[in-house]
Structures are given as structure tokens and as C-alpha cells.
Amino acid sequence: MRVVTTLFVTWLCLLVLLGISVTSVVMLSLPWSLVAVAACALSMILLILVLFMDLKHSRGLTRVYATGATLWLAFLITLTLADYLTR
Amino acid sequence: MPTATKTRKPLGDQGPVAEQFETMGQQRDANRLGMWMFLGTELLLFGGLFGAFVTYRVIHAEGFAEAAGHLDLTLGALNTALLLTSGLTMALTEQMSRAARPKATFWLLVATIAIGALFIVIKGHEWYKEYQEQLMPVLGLPFSYPGEQPEQAELFFNFYFVMTGLHALHMLVGLGVLGVIATVAWRWRNPPRIARQVQISGLYWAFVDVIWVIVFSLLYLSRV
Amino acid sequence: MSTPSLEQRWPRDHYLSGGFRLRDWLLTTDHKRIGWLYFASITFFFFIGGIAALLIRLELITPGGDLLSPDTYNQMFSMHGIIMVWFFLIPSIPNTLGNFLIPMMIGARDLAFPKLNLLSWHVYTIGALFVVLTVLLGAVDTGWTFYTPYSTLFTETAVLAAATGVFVVGFSSILTGINFMVTLHKMRAPGMSWMRLPLFAWATYATSLIMILATPVLSITLLLIAVERLFGIGIFDPALGGDPILFQHLFWFYSHPAVYIMILPGMGVVSELITCFARNSVFGYKSMVISIMAIALFGFLVWGHHMFVAGQSMYAGVMFSLFSFLVALPSAIKTFNWTATLYRGRILLTAPMLYAFSFIGLFTIGGLTGIILAAMAIDVHVHDTYFVVAHFHYIMVGGMVTAYLGGVHFWWPKMTGRMFSELWSKVAALALFIGFNLTFFPQFILGYLGMPRRYHEYPADFQLLNVMSSLGAGALAIGYLLPLVYLTWSLFRGKPAGANPWGATGLEWQTSSPPPKHNFVQIPRVSEPPYAYRNQDQETTG
Questions:
Q1: C103 pLDDT exceeds 90?
Q2: ipTM of the complex
Q3: Which of B2, B67, B204, C51 has the fewest Cβ atoms surrounding its Cβ within 10 A?
Q4: Rounded to whole angstroms, how far apart are CA atoms B170 and B161?
Q5: Which of C109, C182, C230 to mutate to test the interface with B (most CBs of B within 10 A)?
Q6: Which sequence ranges are marked TM in the entry (chain B) (predicted)?
Q7: Tell me: the pLDDT tens digits for B123-137?
Q8: Partners of residue B32 in chain A, C-beta under 8 Å
Q9: Which chain A residue is nearest to residue C310, measuring alpha carbons?
Q10: Residue C178 in contact with partner chain B when CB distance is under 8 A
């Protein structure tokens, strides 16, 4: 079954990404460790959403809502930070 | 146990349609969309916490980074790996239920529940360790922190307990739901319905994974 | 169409016939009956909140504090705010009229998730019980905003019970929002395209969007207050380097968009009323739709205008002020479009239309004073004065409550199958308009002169305006009590209304009144744009 193989490969990728982000925190210093952690976390989330939650085969509408919620969270964080960073 | 029926429609699309809908396609789309919207609200529920944490992480950068160093990275990473694995078993459950394989469905559900429970046990152990190290500023327990800025560290640990606690609560709800579905899958009376239930709860379970990846990255990996 | 006799007009089998045991109501999954459950619950809370308001106004007749003690006064305005915002205004139009009408307007048999809809009401009820508990425990005195650190570290009142109540009722909002959104996406009848949706449905859509995107942030914020009071986990505790202003950010991320939960449905109702009683299709349908969605979007970017003087950075203030001005744009488009819809219409001055006219006037005043408040320099002067109180009451009471009552009158014949007294309904609409202005216009002046809100006593110079305001509150109370009387009377004695007493377009008027259990005998097919009043006039006369 091809789907099952895809799921296993996804799982392996997730574990590798986890490994990378943990080692980068131990090995690297500030700007790069942050970049690595953020990039790994983002990739892991996308892999789970697209493959484990089957966003790949979902309707466009579902994808719009999935990104919409993320966008609103971005509003919350950026506008709040806009206050703290300009005090 | 009945064998898989050989029709062209996927298993989840069989069975009677609920009375408010016209077609099963409409019903399936509505259920999926509803679940995704609910997950969107869950993201924003945690989002308030994430937003608050990021703000403090920016204004108290050093204190928070130092406090993060007092968390057990090994156990955290182990738990993340466990949760990702349970995500795999849940996704496999969905495939097996869709292929109308009762035994595989049931045992994969049991595996998912077992891994999830192990996560909770490890999380509990971590909390106990922090309690012993007096890093648990809850209910007026003593908080003795060896580092530079104990107040900011206390703030950090407040976040740690709220975030991991709320996440664990979601895990427990998920475990309960999966437990119910596992018993239903054991009897295997209404396969189309089971396939639909597995799919919808699978979305929830995977989403709890997503939340944990963020929690883990924010708390454990912000130590530099 | 010839006029059928009264006996023929009354359908033999409808959603209210059969089933008057308690469980036929408390366990019903019929969206129309659930609409009634909400109707009863929010009416109850409206009058509880109203009593608190009345006590406040009675206290303020004299400059000295004679009726209520300072503490009781604080508890009164807090309970007034909490009950009116979360237990009346937010569920008002969406959960009563929306529940009743959305499936009918789009030609569906029910909402997408009928059981979830019932659950939503039960969740509301559980939240309501916590509010009752709060009152029994001696109320809260934090104001409806629960600002930290007062709410977490200092007050001895029942913050935990109140916050739990609001937390719980938030989930009712979320569930209803999801239900409406999925219904509007997936349940529309054949031919009911997005650009054929009634504006009420569009407004409900936008409202639901705000409900599901904003309410979770309120939930977590209240949860953080609860864990601080229960477990001592301080997230906003200044002693630890926590920031109370962060609480305000999170709180207003929900509570400003919540203001649009409290006005968008009203705008939707008014669009239906104006078009029906001007016998005209709405002016600029597409711009109306875009405005509704624009208000929902911009509403999320303006919350900082509540915090101009709270210690927020000046630059953030400028940004939030700018975004706030932007909201005026779509709101103005809507107001102009309503007036343009009247142009060359055949205007019928029915009671619902009187409410709609009141809405436009009062909303305009409320909106324009909002622009004044969004200007930072002026806000420094009038912040936390009665100017602000008057401003948001013009929006929430002058706007939303007026629209709600207009909508209840408009759809009452559909909901009950009976007509109400024309004369008394017009008297009530007028009493509301006069009483409202008398209550709240003096408060603009009071605020501008510098009278702060939330004080139980004031300098004697302010007495005349305060007396006017309190008298107005009495007239306003008459405007609220009258409908309770004649609408109840009409339930039993009103003339049968027939399917479409107002000659309105819209699918909900094409089924009998009261509608059958699943709304339509046959799912309708839609072939024309909304508000085709011109076409209708050519076909029938009168």
C-alpha cells in the first residue's frame, strides 16, 4: 500500500527533524539555533497537517480555514509585539 | 465479523444519511469542515498562551532562556518522539478502518492509546522531578531557583505548567475519545460509522501533536 | 394569489403543534425550538441586567451616594456589564433570530449539526448558572473587563464564579459559530449562490467568523485569571515581571471584535427591514457584502484603541488609531446604502420599519462618536468618562437592541403564526427611541464635561443632566416592557398571520407560518437575486 509507505516515511522525516532541532539547540548559538528550531518546528507542523491530517486531499475551503486560523494567531502576536517592541 | 464490502464508494461514505443532509458527500464535507474549524479555535485557544509567552520571551530574554535550561530536554525530546509515533499509528488506524480491517483498526487504536498514556506518565514523572527540585510554583509550594533571576524564572515555570497542563488535558480528552472508539471498533457493528469516527478523531489527535511541537519548541528549545 | 380564509391560513401541522412536554423542549434538535429556548433565556437575563442598570440610574439621580453603598454600586455595574454583554447581546440576534432563520433563509431543513446546536444552549445554561452563583456569592466588582491585577490579586469578590460563567458561555458561542459557518457553506439550497444570500445571512456569517476566531482567546485569558486565583500561577503578576497590560491586549483581542459580534447581526436585520418596507432591492448589494466582511476583518486590528492611556507604546497607539479610523469606511458605506435604498421606495411605516429608522439614526451617532474616541488626543481627555459610556450604548443599545426588537417584530408572525397590535408596537418603538436618547445623550455632555464613569457620586453641577438620564431610563424601560405584554398577548389572541404578512421576499416567507417541522415541504430552488421587490410588485398588487 502506497499510502502506508508514505505515512512511514513522514514519520521518519518527523523524527529526523526532531533530532536536528534538539542537536541544533545543544550545538549552535543564538541566531542560528533559533532559525533551526523555527524551521524544524514549521516543517514538522506542515508534515503533520498535510500528511497525517490529509490536508493534501482536502477541499480548498478546509485549507483556507486552516491558514486563516494561523493568520489570526499571527495578528495577535505581531500587533501585541508591536506594542512591546516600540515602548 | 463481516467482511469488507466491495462497492465503489469508500467505506466512510456508506450507510444512511442524517436527516438534515441531502447526500453523504454533503454530510462528510460538513463534518470535516466543522472539525477543522473547531481545531482552528483550539489553535487560537493555545494561541493566547503562545502570544503571551513570546511577548515575555522577548522582554525577559535572558531570564527565560536560563529558566528553560532547567527543563529536562531528554525527556521532552523522548515525549515528542512518542507523540509523533502515536500520530503515525493513528494515521494508520484511519487507513485500516477505511479498508474495513477490524482487527488492524482495533490494535492500532490500542497502540495509539498506549503510546499516548506513556506520554502522560513521562510528563507526570517530569512534573514530579520539578516538584522535588522545588521548581513548581503552584499552590504556594516553595520555589527555590538557583539562577540569576528567580522572579522571571517563576514566570517561566508558571507558563510551563499552564501550557503542559492544558496540553495534557487535551491528551486526556483525546485518550477518552479513542478509548470509546476502540470499544466500538472491537464490536465492529457499523463499519461506515466507525470509519467516519476514526477519521474525525484522527484529526483531533494529530492536532494535539501539532500543539505539542509548538509547546516543545517554545519551552524546551528556547534555552539558548 | 387570492387571499385564503383564516382557517386555511393556519397550517394544521407545524413545528409547535404536538410536543409540549418539558423534554420536547429541552431535548429538541429543531433549530426553531432551540431559537425559542434562547429567546426565553436571554429575555430573562436582559431583565436581570436591566434591573442592575435601573439601580445604577436611581443611585445617580442625586449627587451623593444614598441608595447604594460604593461596593454595591461597583457590583451593580459589573453585573450589568457581564450579563448584558455575554448573556444577552452576544447571543441576542445570532442565537434567537439566527437560529430560527438561517436554515430557512438558505432553504435547508436544519442546521448542519442539530445536536451541537442543542448542546450549545445547554452550555449557555450552565454558564448562566455560574452567573446566578456569582450573584448569590455577592457578585463581582471588577467591571465586565476583569482587569488584572485587581481581579487576580486584590478583590475578594466572586471573580472565579463569574469568570467561569463567561468561560463556559464562550464555548456556546464557539459551537454556534461553527454550526452557522458550516451550515452556510454546505447547506444552501440549489441555486442559492453566495451572491443571492440575504444580507442577514451574510452578517451572521461574518459574526460567526468573529465568534470562532476571537472567543478562544477570551477563554484562555479567563482561564489564566482562574489559575492565578486558584493555584497561584501568576502570568500577569507584576511582582514576577508579568505585565497587566498584556492581559488587556489579550482581553481586547477578543472584546473589541466582540463589539462587532454585537452590531453586525443588527446591521443584517436592518438590511432586511429596510428593503422590505421600502419595497426596494437593497442599494449596492455587493458593496454591502464587502463592507460586512471588511468590518469583520478590520475589527481584529483595532483593539489597542482601548489602551491609549493604559501604558501602551505611543507608536502602537498610532497604528491602532489608524486602523480604527478604517472601520468607519465600511460602516459609512452601509449607512449610505440603507438611506439610498429608501430613495424611490414605497415606504411603509410599520413598527419594524420604525425600529430600523431608529437604528440608522442611533448607529450613526454611535459610529461618529467612535471616530472621535479613536483620535488619540481626544481620547486622552474623554477616556473612562461618560462620553465612552454613551458612545458604546448608542452602538449596543441604540444599534443592536433596537435592531433586535425590530427583527423580533418583523419575524414574530413567522415564528408564532400570529400578528401583534400595530398601534402598541409603534408606541413601543417610539418609547424606545425617545427614552434611549433622553438616557444617553446627556451622558455625552456629562462625559465631555469630565464626569468619570464607575463612580457612585458626583459633583452637584452634574445633577440636571443625570436626572434627565435617569428619567430617560424610565421611558426606556416602558419601551422594553410594552412588547413583553402585547407580544405575549398576541401569542394567544393575535390574528393568524398567513405565510407572508409583510409581502417580503426571502425563502423563509415562502413556507407556512408557523413553518412545518423541517421548514419546507419541498426543498426550494432559487432562481432570482435577493430583495426582488420590484419584480414582485409587477406580479401582484397590494
A1: yes
A2: 0.94
A3: B2
A4: 14
A5: C182
A6: 33-53, 73-92, 104-122, 159-182, 203-221
A7: 999 999 999 999 999
A8: 58-59, 62
A9: A83
A10: yes
pLDDT tens digits along C189-235? 999 999 999 999 999 999 999 999 999 999 999 999 999 999 999 99
Residue A85 C-alpha, separation from nearest chain C C-alpha, in angstroms: 8
Measured distance CA(B33)–CA(B27) in Å, rounded = 10
Alpha-carbon distance C324 to nearest alpha carbon in chain A (angstroms)? 14
Q: What DSSP assignment string belongs to chain B?
A: -PPPP--SS-GGG-SPPPTT-S-HHHHHHHHHHHHHHHHHHHHHHHHHHHHHHHHHHHHTHHHHHHHHTTS-HHHHHHHHHHHHHHHHHHHHHHHHHHTT-HHHHHHHHHHHHHHHHHHHHHHHHHHHHHHHTTB--STT--B---SS-HHHHHHHHHHHHHHHHHHHHHHHHHHHHHHHHHHHHHHT--HHHHHHHHHHHHHHHHHHHHHHHHHHHHHTS---
Number of domains in chain C: 1
CA separation for the pair C528, C542 (Å, rounded): 21
Q: Is the pLDDT of residue C7 over 50?
A: no
Domain that holds residue C412: 28-277+284-531
> Is C217 in the B-facing interface, judged by CB distances under 8 Å?
yes
Q: At what angle are helices C402-416 and C264-278 packed, to 10 degrees?
A: 60
CB contact under 8 A, B44 and A72: yes
CB within 8 Å: C316 and A76? no
Q: Closest-CA residue in chain C for A86?
A: C313
d(CA C219, CA C239): 24
Q: State which amino acid sits at residue C355.
A: Y
CA distance A53 to chain B (A): 6
Q: Kindly provide the residue ranges of all beta strands, DSSP E only, lying in C321-403, ordered along the sequence.
A: none
Count residue pairs from A and B with Cβ separation < 8 A: 118
B187 belongs to a structural domain: yes
B85: in domain: yes
Tell me which residue in A61, A69, A83 faces C185 most closely, judged by beta carbons: A61
What residue of A is the nearest CA neighbor of B90? A52
CB-CB under 8 Å, A86 with C313: yes
CB C392 within 8 A of CB C449: no
Element (H, E) at C261: helix C244-261
Q: Is B20 domain-assigned?
A: no
Domain ranges of chain A: 1-53, 59-87
| CATH at B185 | 1.20.120.80
Residue in B37, B43, B206 nearest the CB of A53: B206
Cα–Cα dist C2/C9, whole Å: 12
Cell of C339: 438611506
Q: Is C253 on the interface with A (CB under 8 A)?
A: yes
Any chain C CB within 8 A of the CB of A69? yes
pLDDT in tens, B152-191: 999 999 999 999 999 999 999 999 999 999 999 999 999 9
Using a CB-CB distance cutoff of 8 angstroms, which residues of chain A are in contact with residue B38? none
CB contact under 8 A, A82 and C319: yes
In tens, the pLDDT along C287-339 reads 999 999 999 999 999 999 999 999 999 999 999 999 999 999 999 999 999 99
At C496 the three-state DSSP class reads strand
